């Protein structure tokens, strides 16, 4: 088991360069990691026992029956789910079938490991898009200035290169920032869509799964029925047909134990609550982005709060003379570059903007005088 999780460390490496938000990193880093880990746990049968064990007759090979019932699915009886265990039935839903329409088939448990892996890919997709669109801009502009330990000459040259880029490309980063915001929106759509995907996967029983589990824990012991066994039954029935000695078709009703569903139910209870939390955090992030797009005052306030070393008048001037995409670039650079170096670059950028305004106004006044 430990070898599995050691191997997962190489799958998702934490990058020292942060070009996204912490909530966005929860999608492609933490969530993808746990989904792949769950997929491996379900797949590795030796850690959870046999996925299915069926009670069989003497003349029926055990492996044959188990394999058949695993491939062709098992079922429970809908009308027997709420009957009293130990009096009317041996387990909720396990009863002699009288009507084919009363059967509830369980076909999905063979596909749980594949579904979890597919979900992990979907959670990583917005990150893959942003990584392609971002093009390593933040890493290139950093120039190893995140540490700040280098010679004064080298530091001065690198700060000048960063400053020159910011000055020459001021007001040209909106589309770059909007691509990132699109990726955050796709991450939100993905987590909501996956709730409905799993609801479809589990025959419409997943959207209220977490609430049903909480209600089950608060209800009286005598009246309650575990909602987890409605989606992940631990005991089911399986019908196997074979030819008898005389050549006639014989029907064998087998009772099957599904130990793997004990693991599956815990996985999806966790995922239900985690997806709800992640969806709320991502929705709050999207609202935050909308406020940033339409409110320059909020952009000024956020830079002031986050980077206190920079003078307030410098921040006001920079935000007033730049666009939203530039603000996003400044914020990401501040997250990665040494705070003192970032302060110097921003102060110098403000000085250039101030000088530019002065020369522009001076030229305007001279034109008036000449006229």
From TrEMBL:
Its main location: other. It is found in: Cell junction, Gap junction; Cell membrane. The chain crosses the membrane at residues 26-43, 108-125, 175-193, 267-294. GO terms for biological process: monoatomic ion transmembrane transport. GO terms for molecular function: gap junction channel activity. GO terms for cellular component: gap junction; plasma membrane. Structural component of the gap junctions. PANTHER family: INNEXIN, INNEXIN SHAKING-B. Belongs to the pannexin family. This is Innexin. It comes from Photinus pyralis (Common eastern firefly). The gene is inx.
């Amino acid at each position: 088991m430990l070898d599995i999780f050691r191997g997962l460390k190489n799958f998702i490496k934490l990058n020292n360069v942060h070009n996204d938000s912490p909530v966005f990193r929860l999608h492609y880093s933490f969530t993808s990691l746990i989904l792949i880990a769950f997929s491996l746990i379900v797949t590795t049968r030796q850690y959870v026992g046999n996925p299915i064990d069926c009670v069989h007759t003497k003349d029926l090979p055990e492996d044959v029956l188990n394999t058949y019932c695993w491939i062709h699915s098992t079922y429970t009886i809908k009308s027997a789910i709420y009957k009293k265990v130990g009096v009317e039935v041996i387990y909720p839903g396990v009863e002699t079938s009288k009507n084919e329409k009363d059967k509830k088939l369980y076909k999905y448990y063979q596909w749980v490991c594949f579904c979890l892996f597919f979900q992990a890919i979907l959670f990583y997709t917005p990150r893959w898009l942003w990584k392609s669109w971002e093009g390593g801009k933040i890493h290139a502009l950093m120039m190893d200035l995140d540490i700040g330990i280098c010679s004064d000459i080298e530091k001065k040259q690198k700060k000048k290169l960063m400053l020159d880029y910011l000055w020459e490309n001021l007001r040209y980063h909106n589309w770059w920032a909007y691509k990132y915001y699109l990726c955050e929106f796709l991450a939100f759509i993905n987590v909501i869509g996956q709730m409905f995907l799993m609801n479809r996967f589990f025959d419409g029983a997943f959207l209220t799964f977490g609430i049903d589990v909480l209600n089950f824990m608060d209800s009286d012991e005598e009246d309650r029925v575990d909602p987890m066994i409605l989606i992940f039954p631990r005991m089911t029935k399986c019908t196997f047909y074979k030819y008898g000695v005389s050549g006639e078709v014989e029907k064998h009703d087998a009772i099957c134990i599904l130990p793997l569903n004990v693991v599956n139910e815990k996985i999806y209870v966790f995922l239900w609550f985690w997806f709800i939390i992640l969806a709320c955090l991502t929705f709050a992030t999207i609202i935050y982005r909308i406020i940033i797009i339409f409110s320059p005052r909020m952009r000024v306030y956020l830079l002031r709060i986050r980077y206190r070393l920079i003078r307030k008048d410098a921040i006001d001037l920079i935000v007033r003379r730049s666009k939203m995409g530039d603000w996003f670039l400044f914020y990401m650079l501040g997250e990665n570059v040494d705070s003192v170096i970032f302060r110097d670059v921003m102060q110098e950028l403000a000085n250039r903007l101030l000088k530019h305004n002065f020369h522009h106004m001076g030229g305007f006044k001279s034109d008036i005088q000449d006229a």
